[in-house]
Amino acid sequence: MNLILLGAPGAGKGTQAEAISAKLSIPQISTGNMLREAVKNGTELGLKAKAAMDSGDLVSDEIVIGILKDRIAEDDAKNGYILDGFPRTVAQAEALDSMGVTIDHVLEIHVADERICARMSGRRVCEKCGASYHVEYKPTKVEGICDKCGGKAVQRADDAPETVLSRLEVYKEKTAPLKEYYAKTGKLLTVEGQEEVADTTKLVFEALGIQG
Ligand code: ADP
Ligand code: ZN
Q: Cα(118)–Cα(191) distance, rounded to whole angstroms?
């Protein structure tokens, strides 16, 4: 099964992608995590991406399409994958189509704007493995330490309130049009993001026809 998760920053795509990944044993492919890793390692790619990410803008289509293409060609992606954070522009969606990829479902997690900002302030991400947490909705067992790998769970620089607002603007302008793009193909499913992670997961599994 090849899935795309759509939704505003902070809607919970990463968290739900992790849940689907664990359930179906297919990888979560997060372009955001891959880019953060590149920035952390100071690679050439990371250097190119950093300024855009810090200011809440999108990294160029050319760069992101390149890393995505390489990633889905890897062995573990043979039986399917969950795209989390890609595509984010119509140009990226068209590039995916032209790679000959068949998408089974596009799942939108919808969360009202006014709830997004509150969610983002509590969000934490593991520096080492990229796992996502929330101080209120999905806390780590030990404060500040990733449950999965023991890495540090920290706030992302681009989760600062000013940057969150511009990321929401970018989402509306560049990514939201993808709903229409995929609605036309009949593949778009929408679930309402709930306060509790497990409640959203239940709706997500139902929408995808996965047995909880
Ligand atoms: P969120 O979903 O919370 O906005 P991500 O971790 O998906 O966060 O992305 C973080 C940042 O990485 C984005 O703000 C953007 O700068 C960059 N990025 C991630 N995926 C893409 C993409 N598909 N196209 C362009 N930029 C991307
Ligand atoms: Zn971790």
A: 19
Q: Which pLDDT band, with edges at 50, 70 and 90, does 117 fall under?
A: confident
Residue 156 falls in which region: left (phi positive, over 0), alpha (psi -120 to 50) or beta: beta
Q: Which of 205, 1, 207, 202 is nearest to 101 (CA)?
A: 1
Atom of ligand 1 nearest to the CA of 87: 23
The answer to whether 138 touches 41, Cβ cutoff 8 Å, is no
Using the mean position of ligand 2's atoms as its centre, give its distance from the Cα of residue 102 in Å. Answer: 31
**161 pLDDT more than 90:** no
Nearest to 210 by CA among 15, 71, 16: 16
Q: pTM value?
A: 0.90
